[in-house]
Structure formats: C-alpha cells, structure tokens
Amino acid sequence: MASHIVGYPRMGPKRELKFALESFWDGKSSAEDLKKVAADLRASIWKQMADAGIKYIPSNTFSYYDQVLDATATLGAVPPRYGWTGGEIGFDTYFSMARGNAAVPAMEMTKWFDTNYHFIVPELGPEVKFTYASHKAVEEYKEAKALGVDTVPVLVGPVSYLLLSKPAKGVEKTFSLLSLLPKVLAIYKEVIADLKAAGATWIQFDEPTLVLDLEAHKLQAFTDAYAELAPALSGLNVLVETYFADIPAETYKTLTSLNGVTAYGFDLVRGTQTIDLIKSGFPSGKYLFAGVVDGRNIWANDLAGSLSTLQALEAIVGKDKLVVSTSCSLLHTAVDLVNETKLDDEIKSWLAFAAQKVVEVNALAHALAGNKNEAFFAANAAAQASRKTSPRVTNEAVQKAAAALKGSDHRRATNVSARLDAQQKKLNLPILPTTTIGSFPQTPELRRVRREFKAGKISEEEYVTSIKEEIRKVVELQEELDIDVLVHGEPERNDMVEYFGEQLSGFAFTVNGWVQSYGSRCVKPPIIYGDVSRPKPMTVFWSSAAQSMTKRPMKGMLTGPVTILNWSFVRNDQPRSETTYQIALAIKDEVEDLEKAGINVIQIDEAALREGLPLRKSEQAHYLDWAVHSFRITNVGVQDTTQIHTHMCYSNFNDIIHSIIDMDADVITIENSRSDEKLLSVFREGVKYGAGIGPGVYDIHSPRIPPTDEIADRINKMLAVLEKNILWVNPDCGLKTRKYTEVKPALTNMVSAAKLIRNELAK
Q1: pLDDT band for position 678 (cuts 50, 70, 90)
Q2: Is residue 701 flagged as an active site residue?
Q3: Which of 236, 535, 652, 729 could form a disulfide with 754 if both were Cys (CB 3.0 to 4.6 A apart)?
Q4: C-alpha span between 264 and 204 (Å, rounded)
C-alpha cells in the first residue's frame, strides 16, 4: 500500500533556514552560503521520507519565502516597479517582491486560506508578459534524483494561482484574472516538458481553491485548464491535491471529471463530508490520495480510527488505487518531537510533529497492506486513552463558568459614541491621535536577557531591572517622537500568544516547536491540551511600571481569545468555541485588573479573527457569532472612560466589516497600507463606522522607510471616507521585526505627517 506526503516544513528542526535568510539579508553571508543551507535541508527532508518508506515524496515544496511567490517567479510575473529585465529571476528581484527595498514597497501579503501562514499576492493585468523565468521545480527534481530519491514535483495549480491573484495597481478591479489562463498555461506546458525530460513520472498540482464556494465560470476554468494541459501531461500520472475543507458536491463532480488527471487528494480531517461524496461515486481506475493524518495540528493520529476509514475507502476505490496521505502540507505543524526535551512524558505521548506524522502515514499504509505493527498501534491506543481520561485535561469550575456565558450577549451598557466622549474628556487627545500597535524592536541584547533569565543565568531582580530599563528607553523614545498614546514595547515577550499561554492553565510549551508564518518569521504555537483559566495577573506589573514613567496614556497590551485560539495548537476533543469562551473569561479577569491598576487604554488584539473564518460560507455566520461574542466578554465589565482598542492585520476584512463593528471596540487599528488601502473601499461603498479607527499608514514588514508626504497622502485618503474625529494614525502592525534604525525615522515621518494634516484641518 502506497504512502504520500503533501508537503513538509522548510525552516529546519532548529530554524536553520531562518538564520541563513536573515544572515544573507543583513549582508553577513553570501548567496552561495544561503543556497548551501537550503540544499542541506532539502537533502535531509528527502532522505527522512525515503528512509521512512514514503513512496510519493514531494519536491519543489521548499521555498526561500513562499510557494505562491515561487510560482510568480516561474511565470515571470514580476511587477514593473522591481526593474526586472528578463532572464532567470535571482535573489535580488525575488526578495524585493517579498520584502520591498529602499526604493519600492513589497507586494501585498495575506493569509493562506484559514491558516497563520502568509503568501505573497500576485499582481496581474492584461499587460503582463509571462515568461518561464525560474527553473526551480525541475532543478529541485534533478537534485533529489541525484541523491537517489525519485520525487513528485509539486506546482501551485494554474487556476488556483489566478484565483489567488489580484488586479495590479492601475488595472480595473473588474478585470477577469481568469482571462489570463491561456498565457499562464503556455508557461506551465514548458515546465511540464522540462519535468518529463528530467524523468518525472508524477506531477502534483495544488488546487486548494477547489474547497471554496466557486461560481460556475470558475469551475469551468478548471475543466478548460486541464483539458488544455492534457496533451502536455500525456504519459505522466497527475495528482490534483485539495485541502483545508470539504469539497462541495458540484466541485467534486468537476474535479473527478478533469481531463488527464489520474489522482485526487482530499483532506479527510477537516473534510469529513467528502467521504460521503467518495462513497456515492468515485471514478474507476483513478487513485485516491486519502488525507487522514492531520497536517495542521500536533495531536497523534487515532490510528485505529484512521485504519477503519481507510478500509472503508479501499472497498470503494480498490486496494491498488488507495494512497495514505496527510490532510495537507506539514508546513503548518512543528518539525520533530525528538527535539522536545522539556515536555513531560504524558503530554509528549499525545503528540505527533511532522517527522512523527510521516511515520504514522507509513504505519497506516503498512497496516492496510496487512503488515500492521501491533506494538506501534497498541502504544498509540494507550496514548489516546490516556488523553481522554487524564485529570489534567478537565477543570469543572472552568467548564461551568464558560457554560453560564451563553445566557447573555455581553454588550457594554453605553453606546460607543457616548463612550468616546467620556474617554476624550479623560484622555484629552488631539485630532488624529498617533499610536503604535504594541511591540518595539527585539534587539539581540533583549533576547539575550530573556534567554539568560529562562536558563537561570541571571536572577529575577536582574531580569526585572533590565526589562524596566528597556521599557524606559521605549517610553522616552515615544515621548521624544511626540506620540500621543504610548506602548511599553513588550520587551518581556518573545511572542504575544506564547507569553499569555505560559501564564494560563491548560497550556503546554515546546522548545523547538517552530512553525513558519512568512519569510523567515517563525512562531512557536502553544499547545492547548486542557481547560483554560488565569491563576494570577499576567501583564499588570509591566503595564503599571510603564504608566509610572509617563503622564501620557499607556496602553495595556493583551492578546484576544480568538487570536490565542487560532495561533495555538488547539485541543480537538471539544468544539473550538468552548475553548475560546474559557480563554475569554481569563482575559476578562486581566482587563479588569488592568483597569483597577489605573490603565485607561487597553488593547485586546484580535489579529487572527478573520483568519479563523471557515472557508465555506454556510459555516461562517456561526463562527463569527461566537468569535465576536468572545471578544465582547473580555471587556463587558469596564467603565465608559476605559478605552478598549483592538488590532487586526493581514487578511481581507471587507467581507466581515459588520462583524468587526459588532465587536463594539472603542478603537480598532487595522492593516491597510500593504494591501493598497483595500480596506478603505468598504467606507467608500457607504459602510458607516462610528468608533475610532486607525487604518495602518505604513507597512512594517518591509525595511523601507516611508516619506512624510506619502504618509500624509494616505491620511488624506482616509479623511475622504472617515470623519476626522474618529481617525487614528498608526503603522500597520507591531514593530518587533524591525530595527531601531528603521523604526525611528519611520515613526518620525508618521508623526510629522499627522501634525501636517492637523495643521491643514485647523486652517
């Protein structure tokens, strides 16, 4: 019985690629050094899968930044502003598209479906001259072959590529991106020919947009595309891979009728209803790649349950046509449990990271073929039973408190307009108040202090002294820049979700459980294994210390319940809404303690609210109902004079703007600049927003420093659709990934732009 992995993490077990990328970007190492690290990682990944017995091993899933950007490079679809003149696309052009440079901004970055991974959005129009400009797919196939590993090259499918793109600046928003399909397919044919010539026998096209609710003309595009590619694909086995949700019934018919396609991959973890479609009819002689091992979470597979599912599918598709697979790429999970030295044995027995999932896939394939590893299955069953019965998972008091929430919608008693008036009397802020989102640069010295404290090399007193000194520097800098509402810079936090999880019950933490978010940015999601509560205050000490250093308002900085949920590995033994309500109660306690400590502005970040929106429209209203309710629970008990902020970033918010309004925050800061001010179109179309709002005026994920006039122009565009008395001026997101040499001039220009517009308004 055959086995398959959709894709694998790129960063390496100890973030080797991250450090190589950052060294290269900082000019400390060469392109050859970076390529050597990447080649070593690829070789290690391929060998690991081959040694585990995986038959269908992917190649071209490795990326220096993002797989969609890789597809853009392959197609030569480089926006003109980057000055590319043809030839093989090199690092200069590639990383300029991803990160921007001193002269031009980066391309838009947004969330990859409902994950915390981000991709670079292609910018297309009728004038784009597609050309085969990156031979990465065939080069990596040959590289693996030279190592003795025959792989399945993976390409972003042509239709999904276009559906994930956007019209370039200056192109009509009504432009049909699918009209570019014939031009794009011409390049795909060249890539396919190269792969065939190199000896490839399988090709995997990732077409994840097939799980969305697609209109008829978009479904037709899949039929047309694969019919056009069929002659080029002749002689190859072709897998079309889908993931992240159920396949709609009409889409299933289209997919299983595609010309030239020999295999279909389905996510049977998040797409359990797809099994019913398969049972109702599966094309004879085709392969089913059954994604029964979860690629998005870290819980050990229920091997007995998966084997039962596979046996039922085998009866439908045939023994030689069923392939055991992961539900999606393992990119979204941590790399290897072997590197976790501090997790206790009980919790560790409940988990499987990417390396362990590869073993699970192969074990299921062997069991299906009649070669079941009885000891492995028995250990798995024991771990499943342990998790269900462990007393550390359940807290009856927490469950009762969460259940009691359902009788109210938890709204503040006074409307937002009256609250803003009360807050202004207390805070006395100018028109267009300036602020930042929370974090300031995380310097090597700051990281060293946190690291040494965790390792017991410095005392708690020394640690507190160092962190307070860092807060003082951040406060003094903001006062020097004349920012109106200050932040303490979060020097005590390596990661916003990890920081809170460490102080809440029901969470476990890894040492090397890193997951790529974008580029070199990695996060270490906490593991929510049990009921959640707050044993003691989490941020009051630091926020109070920061407020004592200034007379200006100091924001208390919290992460919201939905974001903590969506940026964690979440328990799968109860509905996600139940876990979120538990977290909301813990954050509510913290909000009220901050207010008692004299913090008058409290930011509760919900950066990931949109990220968790289900991909299917029929499921979205239910999610938004409990997600928005959870946010309101956190701050329902505060006084009218306490100003509640929230923050959101790097998603398309236009389709949930009414739910954002329903959160009833006093002020929302929201990413805007990197997405070409797409957010403002909502207000141009007549949506009325009465609370404070700060659409970001510059992109913090690029080292580029925006000039004052550019920021002023952005503010004026906002004033064209928003009232001056509700508009705030702030960056897109937190500043932790930037350097002070970038932050100081950028914030200087931001404040100057705000003052410039204030003066114009005064006239």
Answers
A1: low
A2: yes
A3: 729
A4: 10
Measured distance CA(252)–CA(99) in Å, rounded: 38
56 has a pLDDT exceeding 80: yes
| Local structure of 435: helix, strand or coil | strand
Residue 108: closest CA among 693, 739, 708, 696: 696
588 in Cβ contact with 630 (< 8 Å):
no
Instruction: Tell me the one-letter amino acid at 234.
Output: S
Decide the pairing of beta strands 521-523 and 515-518: antiparallel
Q: How confident is the model at residue 649 (pLDDT cuts 50, 70, 90)?
A: confident
Residue 198's Cβ-count burial label (10 Å; 0-12, 13-18, 19+) is middle
3-state secondary structure of 107: coil
| Both structure tokens of 699 | 């992109």
Q: Which amino acid is at 62?
A: F
Rounded distance between C-alpha atoms, residue 262 and residue 239, angstroms:
6
Contact yes or no for 64/18 (Cβ under 8 A): no
Helix (H) or strand (E) holding 416: helix 416-427
Model confidence at 706, pLDDT cuts 50, 70, 90, reads very high
What 8-state DSSP symbol labels residue 404?
Answer: G
**In this structure, what token pair is assigned to residue 443?**
């310097």
Positions of E strands within 26-102: 57-59
Read off φ and ψ for residue 664, nearest 5 degrees.
65, 35
CA 363 to chain centroid, in Å, comes to 30
Q: Which residue, among 169, 63, 174, 192, has the nearest Cα to 122 in the 3D structure? A: 169
pLDDT band for 676, please (50, 70, 90 cuts). low
In whole angstroms, give the CA distance from residue 84 to residue 634: 49
Instruction: Note the residue count of the chain.
Output: 763
Give the pLDDT confidence of 280-299 residue by residue, as tens digits: 999 999 999 999 999 999 99
274 and 253 in contact (C-beta within 8 Å)?
no
Question: The pTM is what?
Answer: 0.92
For residues 445-452, average pLDDT? 92
Single out the residue of 37, 84, 47 nearest to residue 520, CA to CA: 37
Residue 136, judged by CB atoms within 10 A of its CB (0-12, 13-18, 19+), counts as buried
Write out the DSSP string of 40-71: HHHHHHHHHHHHHT-SBEEES---SS-HHHHH
pLDDT (0 to 100) of residue 674: 65
Instruction: Kindly tell me if the per-residue pLDDT of 651 is higher than 70.
Output: no
Longest Cα pair distance anywhere in the chain, in angstroms? Answer: 83
Share of the chain above pLDDT 70, in %: 99
- Of 730, 734, 684, 679, the C-alpha closest to 706 is 730
Q: What is the DSSP string of 618-656?
A: GGHHHHHHHHHHHHHHHHTTS-TTSEEEEEE-SS--GGG
